[in-house]
Amino acid sequence: METVTLAIAVTALVLGFSALWMVSSQSRKISETRGGDLLDTVRQLDEDLSNVEIAVSRMQPHVASMQAQVASLSERLPGALRYAAVVTFDASEERTGHLSRSIALLNERRDGLVITLLVGSRQTLFFTKMIREGEGTEPLSPEERTAVERALGK
């Protein structure tokens, strides 16, 4: 136990002397680069710090404006488009080459819509259905349900 205490004490002394040596060498480097003694260097550093504080205080109105913009973006982000998926299929028995589509577009809250295009040889039909919390507000076709599930990674 005494050996451990002694080792800790020796380590603390070595670290203490190392820190003193580093501070001493840094202060010599600072005074050499600034061309004066340590007291002049400290005064110059104090003046530099005052200039930085003045510059920061001038930036405060800009910082407040940026904080307001970030808050606004954070509030709107859950409503932004986050999930999307497309399912292709044949809408008719004519086998036209999977030209029909169901497209799910959802936000972070899993709200959005499904757009369905039914492509046939004579006409194209266009439908939209609302999605709330990942579920259709009206019944979804199997392709629409698949599009929503794929968008949500299910």
Description:
A hairpin with a 4-residue loop joins strand 2 (100-107) and strand 3. This protein is an alpha+beta fold. The mean pLDDT is 78. It has 2 domains: 33-78; 80-151, no CATH class. Strands 1-2-3-4-5 form a 5-stranded antiparallel beta sheet, covered by helices on one side. It is built from 3 helices and 5 strands; from the N terminus they run ααβββββα. The protein has helices spanning 2-34, 38-76, 142-151, and strands at 81-89, 100-107, 112-119, 124-132, 135-136.
What is the percentage of strand-forming residues? 15-25%
How many β strands by DSSP?
5
Number of domains: 2
For the report, how would you describe the main beta sheet?
Answer: 5 strands, antiparallel
Share of helical residues: 40-55%
Main attributes of the structure:
23% strand, alpha+beta, 3 helices, single chain, 5-stranded antiparallel beta sheet, 154 residues, 2 domains
Overview in brief:
This protein is of the alpha+beta class. The protein has three helices and five strands, in the order ααβββββα.
SSE order and pairing:
Blueprint: H1 2-34, H2 38-76, E1 81-89, E2 100-107, E3 112-119, E4 124-132, E5 135-136, H3 142-151
Antiparallel strand pairs: 1-2, 2-3, 3-4, 4-5
